Amino acid sequence: MSARCGRSDAVLALFLDGDGVTAAGISQTGTGATGGPSRDLAEHLAGCPVCRQQLARARRLDALLAQTSTAAPEPERVELWLAEVAARAASPGPLTVPAPVRRVGVLPLALGAAAMLLVGFFAAVWLRPERSIDGPGETSAAVAVASPTASSDGSSSNGPPRESAPDPAPPPIAGIALPRRGPTPSREARRLRPRPARSAAELVARPVAQLVADLRPLQVLRAEALGLPAVPVTAALQVAADRVRASAVMELAQARQLTPVVAFLAAEPAGPTLDRVAAALREERPLLDRLRHAVRRGPGGGGRRWNQLCRAAAMLGGARLDDALRLAVAGDLGSTESIVEAQSRLDHRPGRVALLLCLWADLEARGFGRHAAAGAPAKDRVHRWFAGLPAAATTDLVAALRQSHHGEERRRCLLALAARGDPAAAPELMARIGGPRYGEAQLAAFALGRSLDASAAAHAVAGLRRGRRPELLLAALASGRAAAAEPWLDALRVTSEERQLLRLGGFDPESFPIAVALCRRGASAP
Amino acid sequence: MATDVSESQAAGRARCGPEELALLASFRGGDAEAFPALVRPHLGALQALARRLAGDRQWGEDLVQETLLRAYRALAAFRGDASVRTWLFRIQCRLATEPARWRRGDHAGGAPPADVPDHLGPSPEQGSLQRELRDRLDEAMERLPARQRTALHLRAVEGLDYATIGQVLECSGGAARMLVLAARQRVMERLGRYLEP
After folding, report:
1. Alpha carbons A460 and A484: distance in angstroms, whole number
2. Mean pLDDT in runs of 10 for chain A (526 residues)?
3. Which of A57, A70, A365 is closest, CB to CB, to B48?
4. How many CB atoms lie within 10 A of CB A212?
5. CA separation for the pair A64, A311 (Å, rounded)
6. Three-class HEC string of A494-525
7. Nearest neighbour of A73 by CB, restricted to B47, B70, B187
8. E strands within A153-275?
9. Cα–Cα distance measured from residue A268 to residue A486, given in angstroms and rounded to the nearest whole number
């Protein structure tokens, strides 16, 4: 893209847009060529690799744009549009097409500002206290309130009674707020002067104290009548404060205020409030769209803010946000770890397992976990992503395993199940051990070894007796240090060291095939 | 040369065809059914442009809806100097500059997207690459100024000539050409290696 040619625009105009007139114009102004512009440009194109490349890229761009923008609207949607037009057209409304927005020039703006200043100046002069005293019938309430002189001498007797005036607003013009001369302000005027606002603590302290006072007799009654321990007042207050904060965040979210919402998600500790707010935020589609666009824009100059945006997106989730996140982190291990950590702060997060599997795939596609020097530790860390997830993750992983048509995807699911070690996955793993692909069956056995409880071990022993891939089942039992495996281990034709190795168990994905190879030596004959 | 260009632009300007004129006359005569017949062939193009202008599927649908409503109300005054498609594009481009007129906060009526991304297909890597390319393209288009984005879309997707694009954007054909070239250049630079064959 660094090389440029002065005739590329003309080439594109002619060969891409078919605009011979414009191409001739550009060509002539650009190079001074005369006559037969098409032939001239064709000859130039044949000998200019830069123009050829530009043309090829522009053609591909146009094709891509056309390809991604030609989906026909759904018939239901079309009918909905037309029906709504018919319905809304019946109601009164503007009958003209909106005019295009035109930019206002600097001069009209300056003139307008000057006119406003002029009007303000004359208004200030006209509404001075002296004038309000001279013309009693023309004094506005605001001026009367702001001018102690006018209110104290009683000359403006035809105005409304000042005592009944509610909380006075600040005077509209600063120049008339204070009297220029006259006696000391009267008591009434002092009362009507704007007071400094009370501090938030002062406003809040009294109701909270009242709340606590009201709670005490109820606590005593509850303890006496029901025999229940007293609820800590701080806990009750914390619940109330959490609700107020959640409500405030939702109001901001409905107003599409992205920054405070992201700040809240970053600062709020993990807990029910965070879960509740995140669940409600997932319904705020406009806010999510803003967040998605912000994530897709990339870090630009603000890496820290962008990181916060990504973490917020990771907490909220959803197909479109997850896609944007994957593109944003683009297989970078540090960013990936950051968003994985962010999503783990929530108890429930839709699409969590799918996102983690995709991120894992992206990392592998870029060399982590397989060939890079940092592969092994990175892989271990990836396995740990799944270990601390809530129980529902096992169900999601099993579902993903069943639905996947891709071997690598299934391999990741099985390793994730192994990392979780949840016995709930044991039936599926047992079924996989008998499956058609041996490599996958071996991984399933490895995962089973990590997920054994008494019931799963009994099922494995039953399978061992049936003789379907006994070496895998025995290796799984040995890996899980199941006592039921002892007779089979004793019957193996292995050395004492090898038997001892099998009894130690706790294999990892790399050493598990060795255990399987050992168990193959006579595993069917206990 | 200037004369040639202006003549070419004038000649290139699309006008209403006889069928559209007949439907227009029918609408002016009180036949409300003529409106759907008039706009239906252009809804796909309107939707594509709206998505590009709004940067969002659902807001794009809102924009199409509002465009149709405005067109319905103004159709009686439409003289037929441009084709209906060009006229609709122009309404949509004008509306797009004022999102407060057509954006609605509540999108509950639309089908909610699935929470689980569709990555479990037979070839996830291939799907992922396609998605990545599409997203990069969308992103590059979103970063263009609105007029450049519209001009490039109308040229590449709708295949309009510069004169008609100028009609839509209310500028000359030459200015439309500059917008298309500048937009194309920017997007190609942004996409970089993604456009390599």
Report:
1. 9
2. 71 74 53 59 85 86 82 80 77 43 49 58 47 36 34 38 37 36 51 49 57 73 76 71 81 84 87 87 88 82 80 89 83 81 87 88 68 55 81 90 86 90 90 86 90 86 81 88 82 82 82 85 59
3. A70
4. 13
5. 32
6. CCHHHHHHHHHCCCCCCCHHHHHHHHCCCCCC
7. B47
8. none
9. 51
H/E element, A373: none
Query: A454-483 b/e with 16+ CB inside 10 Å = b?
Result: eebbebbbebbeeeebbbbbbbbbbbbebe
pTM over 0.90: no
Q: What is the pLDDT of residue A162?
A: 39
| Separation in Å, CA A481 to CA A448, A503, B36 | 12, 7, 73
- Looking up tokens 């309404």 gives B91
Judge: A95–B191 Cβ closer than 8 Å, yes or no.
no
User: Crossing angle for the helix pair A285-297 and A258-267, nearest 10 degrees?
Assistant: 80
What's the Cα-to-Cα distance from B191 to each of A362, B148, B181, rounded to whole Å? 20, 16, 15
Tokens of A337: 């770890």
Q: What's the token pair of residue B34?
A: 């003529």
Which residues in chain B are closer than 8 Å to A365, comparing Cβ atoms? 125
Task: Quote the Cα angle for B27-B33-B35, to 5°.
Answer: 60
Give CA angle at A73 (A68, A76), nearest 5°.
155
Note the pLDDT of residue A397: 92
Q: Is A190 helix (H, G, I), strand (E, B) or coil?
A: helix
Cα A8 to Cα A11, A20, A24, B178: the distances in Å are 5, 14, 12, 13
Residue B121, phi then psi, degrees to nearest 5: -70, -175
Helix axes A352-365, A375-387, angle to 10 degrees: 180
A418: phi then psi, degrees, rounded to nearest 5: -65, -40
* Overall size of chain A counted in residues: 526
CA–CA distances in Å: residue B192 to residues A50, A519, B61, B157: 15, 54, 31, 21
CB–CB contact B44 A72 (8 Å)? yes
One-letter amino acid at A333 equals L
Looking at the partner chain, which of B52, B64, B189 has a beta carbon nearest the beta carbon of A81?
B64
- Distance to chain A for B93, nearest Cα, Å: 9
How far does the CA of residue A354 sit from the closest CA of chain B (Å)?
6
**What does A394-433 look like in DSSP terms, one character per residue?**
HHHHHHHHHH---HHHHHHHHHHHHHHT-GGGHHHHHHHH
CB contact under 8 A, B157 and A21: no
| In contact, A314 and A359? CB cutoff 8 Å | no
**SS3 state at B108:** coil
C-alpha A139/C-alpha B11 separation (Å) is: 68
Q: Rounded CA gap, B49 and B64, in Å?
A: 9
- Number of A:B CB contacts under 8 A? 184
When computed from its CA atoms, the radius of gyration of chain B, rounded to whole angstroms, is 19
Tell me how crowded residue B81 is: count the other CB atoms within 10 A of its CB. Answer: 12
**Cβ neighbours of B91 in A, within 8 Å:** 97
Residue A445 in tokens = 């056995």
Q: How far is A89 from chain B (nearest CA, A)?
A: 7
Helix (H), strand (E), coil (C) string for chain B? CHHHHHHHHHHHCCCCCHHHHHHHHHHHCCCCCHHHHHHHHHHHHHHHHHHHHHCCHHHHHHHHHHHHHHHHHHHHHCCCCCCHHHHHHHHHHHHHCCHHHCCCCCCCCCCCCCCCCCCCCCCHHHHHHHHHHHHHHHHHHHCCCHHHHHHHHHHHCCCCCHHHHHHHHCCCHHHHHHHHHHHHHHHHHHHHHHHCC
- The 8-class DSSP code of residue A177 comes to S
- Give the minimum alpha-carbon distance from A349 to chain B in angstroms, rounded to a whole number: 10
